[in-house]
Specification:
The protein is built from five helices and no strands. It has 120 residues and is an all-alpha fold.
Length: 120
Amino acid sequence: MIMDVQLGSLFTAVALIVIGIFAAVYLDNLIKKVIGLAFIGDGANMFLVAMGYKPGGIVYIYLPGMAADWFAQNAAYPLPFAMVLTSIVIGASTMAVMLGIIIVLYKKHGSLRASKVLGE
C-alpha cells in the first residue's frame, strides 16, 4: 500500500515534534536541547506545509491567459508557505541567540550540562 504524500508528511511532522519534545525535556546537554527545540519548529513547519499541500495543485502564480475560475480551483494555498518562510527566518535567529547564550554559559560554568549550570 502506498501512503499519500500529505499523510506521510503529517506523520513525519508528528515524529519530529515528539522527538524534539523528548530531547528538550529529558536530555541534559544544552546543545541537544536546542537541537530538540529546532526539531519542534521544523515539525511545525512541516505540518503547515502538509496542510497547504493540494494534490494536483499548481503554483499560485497567475499568468496571462489563465482563466480565473480554473486558477482558483487548481492553485495551491499560498498562506502556509508564507508562514513557513517567516518561521524559518525567526527560528534561525532565535537559534543563533540560544547558541550564543550557551557559549556564554559554557565560559562561565565550564560545562554544557543543564543540571550543572542550574546548580542542581
